[in-house]
Amino acid sequence: MCHSTDSRPPAVENPGSVAEEGLIELTSQDGTTFSAFHAHPGEPNGRGVVILPDIRGVHAYYQDLARRFAEAGFAAVVLDYYGRTAGLGPRDDEFEWQPHFQQLVPDSVADDAAAAVAYLTGKNPGITVFSVGFCLGGGHSWRLAGTELPLAGSIGFYGLPGLVEDRLKDISAPLLLLLAGDDVATTQEDFEAFRGKLDDAGKAYEYKVYDGAPHSFFDGGAPEWQDISADAWQRVLDFTARHAQAAA
């Protein structure tokens, strides 16, 4: 489990309002209908995010995270991975994700992400869209930078570099890697090897390793990680602001 069942994302500084939120259904490029959660800001900043969750799909943590992004001015959509095998609906703490995770296909995640991007751009003409993911979703987020999606950048928190291997040479959007120094899912050697491959391929990326921080440090209920969570939020805000301006 990437987070404890009672964890929630940290708050943003000086939050704005959420104008609209709720569960929606989207249709993937292969015709699959899947669940998603959207949150739209009361004070838009012209940016949007497709949120790729951890193994739990559209869990309450990620619904709250969409709200936090909306409070920061972003239009946000969390996609659920398991529409093809588990049907529709949000995922609670009792959801048995293991058999569905084992059937997950990266290209299907990209198809679902394309539907989420289309939803954001259709509802918010002229918006600049980024992907942001966590653990499993972090790897998928970085991988999306190597697809044809019109992303201005891809952000991953303690992601899985192995998910990017088949798309590494195709990466065309800048990456932000926010990494846990004491990650138990991916070693620092693996992250260093991933950065080396990005360097060898001439890909644009930024990274921050939070020394001593565990996998899933982005938790508003963990006061010991409050400072690094605030730093990670600021890096996301700065990264998206710079690259939105560059894409304009």
Automatic annotation (TrEMBL):
Keywords: Hydrolase. This is Dienelactone hydrolase family protein. Residues 34-242 form the Dienelactone hydrolase domain. It comes from the Bacteria. Its EC number is 3.1.-.-. InterPro entries: AB_hydrolase_fold, Dienelactn_hydro, Dienelactone_hydrolase-like. The lineage of its organism: Bacteria, Bacillati, Actinomycetota, Actinomycetes, Kitasatosporales. It is an enzyme of class 3 (hydrolase). Pfam families: DLH. GO terms for molecular function: hydrolase activity.
